[in-house]
Design a protein that fits this description.
Strand 12 (281-283) and strand 13 form a beta hairpin. Helix 9 (196-219) crosses helix 10 (226-239) and helix 11 packs antiparallel against helix 12 (330-345). The strands form seven sheets. Strands 6-5-4-1-7-8 form a six-stranded mixed sheet, sandwiched between helices. The protein has a three-stranded antiparallel sheet with strand order 9-12-13. Strands 10-11-14 form a three-stranded antiparallel sheet. It is α+β, with helices and mostly antiparallel strands and 463 residues long. It is 36% helix and 18% strand. It folds into two domains: 23-190, 3-Layer(aba) Sandwich (Creatine Amidinohydrolase, Chain A, domain 1); 195-454, Creatine Amidinohydrolase. The structure holds glycine and manganese (II) ion (2 copies). Glycine binds at residues 247, 278, 289, 372, 378, 402, 426.
Length: 463
């Protein structure tokens, strides 16, 4: 078993992180693939993310918009990408902040236009203040305009303004694009199938996140606060080259594990309880998403073990369904059957398996899906159904497998010994020709292995 106990030195970690960058040529290819799908005479307009203020003079950490990053690799705020079909393929126009020595003294390095062309392989780069002048020129004569349509009225209004300017110049030959489309579904379908370079990063994000879970199992003890366990993750992520978790870390001791999006993390961990931790790092904008549930004091009680074993078997059954050509909801159906049979066997539900599945009486204990796509977003882009049918799994898709059981602390329909137990086990899986590739095996999930790690068997992860 190669659990992530052989922690890399900082130098090793830094070397890996330097060597796993996505090559610029891949961003160029992505833009080309997008443009190749568009009808002749199309222009794509895609704004990046802007800085969000947290409170007076303090910002939230900036994080580039995933779609924008996917097409450019450009991580600076307030940028816009415009794609036009040129003679030699897609012409990429980037609008970004100008070099400005005084401003850069306050807010740090800016790429600027010259470097944007050279390093990000843009056809042209303009300063942001040229947007309103240049955009009407860039879309003049195009028939189709593609941009994000997700209820951003400010963006639609701005685009309508640019089109209106062209309509007003119709007598001098200007032509406004009259067919407007949502570009997001096209980008999201591209994002759904990961390249080899993306998979290298995702494997590494998974490895770092698994190491952090091992560390948490090793240091966990009763009376610790949930946020003190959370701190182990944040430390390990950043130590390993990640700048942030991919989503808010969930550390739920006891019944807090039954709250699916519990993020307060401010309660003490009690001996005898389980703790459910859902934590993954973001590395080079790609997410890992792992959940482990383990006993605060290192040993599962009989009831905890019984429920845990059901979830674990459901997870194995679901992972087995991650096969090319099977539909993307096959893992959920497989997990559901095992969970429901387990609930029946333990006397937590009555009836037959068919009745439980049909009536959804299991929903009291299992109320979420088993999988989601994983990538630049933790709940990554891409449709799950096409024309009403669950889509087949394809090589290069990455998904989570995360069954759970949650017995509410006030559920008086079950014996008191079950109440307040929340369990989820979540791994990240790549669809390959050879079957499921689980990339989060660096942290144990079998009861005996977890108890052994918590008992100090295995090489301790050093700080
Ligand atoms: N961590 C979010 C999820 O598992 O979906
Ligand atoms: Mn998940
Ligand atoms: Mn998760």
């Amino acid at each position: 078993m190669t659990h992530a106990n052989q922690q890399k030195s900082r130098a090793e970690q830094n070397l890996i992180n330097r060597n796993i960058k996505i090559p610029q040529s891949e961003y160029d290819l992505r833009r080309q693939r997008l443009v190749d799908q568009l009808p002749e005479g199309s222009v794509v307009i895609l704004p990046g993310a802007v800085i969000r203020y947290r409170n007076n003079d303090a910002d939230y950490a900036f994080r580039q918009d995933s779609d924008f990053y996917y097409l450019t690799g450009f991580a600076e705020e307030e940028a816009w990408l415009v794609l036009t079909s040129g003679r030699k393929g897609a012409d990429s126009h980037l609008f970004c902040l100008p070099k400005d020595r005084a401003q850069e003294t306050w807010t740090g390095f800016r790429v600027g236009q010259e470097q944007a062309i050279a390093e990000y392989n843009m056809s042209c780069a303009y300063t942001l203040d040229q947007l309103d002048n240049r955009l009407p020129e860039l879309i003049d004569g195009a028939q189709h305009l593609f941009y994000p349509m997700q209820g951003d009225d400010a963006l639609s209004r701005r685009i309508q303004d640019w089109c209106q300017q062209l309509r007003q110049k119709a007598r001098s030959g200007a032509v406004a694009p009259e067919q407007h489309h949502n570009v997001l579904p096209l980008i999201h379908e591209l994002r759904l199938i990961k390249s080899d370079a993306e998979l290298v990063i995702m494997r590494h994000a998974a490895e770092i996140s698994a190491e952090a879970h091992c560390k948490a199992m090793q240091v966990c003890e009763p009376e610790m606060m949930e946020y003190q366990l959370e701190a182990e993750y944040l430390y390990h992520f950043m130590r390993s080259g990640s700048r942030a978790p991919a989503y808010n870390t969930i550390v739920g001791g006891g019944a807090n594990g039954c709250v699916l999006h519990y993020v307060e993390n401010n309660q003490p961990l009690n001996a005898g309880d389980l703790v459910l931790i859902d934590a993954g790092c973001e590395l080079q904008h790609y997410a890992a998403d792992i959940t482990r549930t383990f006993p605060v004091s290192g040993r599962f009680s009989p009831e905890q073990s019984a429920l845990y074993q059901v979830v674990l078997e459901a997870q194995y059954a679901a992972i087995d369904q991650v096969q090319v050509g099977l539909d993307c909801h096959a893992p959920h159906r497989a997990a559901l059957n095992v969970l429901c049979q387990g609930l029946l066997d333990l006397g937590l539900l009555g009836g037959t398996l068919d009745e439980v599945v049909e009536s959804e009486s299991y929903r009291r204990f299992y109320m979420h899906g088993t999988s989601h796509w994983l990538g630049l977003d933790v709940h990554d882009a891409g449709r799950y159904k096409i024309e009403g049918q669950s889509r087949p799994l394809q090589v290069g898709m990455v998904l989570t497998i995360e069954p759970g059981l949650y017995i509410a602390p006030d559920d008086d329909s079950v014996d008191v010994c079950w109440r307040g137990i929340g369990i989820r086990i979540e791994d990240n899986v790549i669809v390959t020709e050879q079957g499921p590739e689980v990339i989060t095996t660096g942290v144990p999930k079998n009861i005996a292995e977890i108890e052994a790690l918590m008992a100090g068997e295995g090489i301790a992860i050093s700080a």
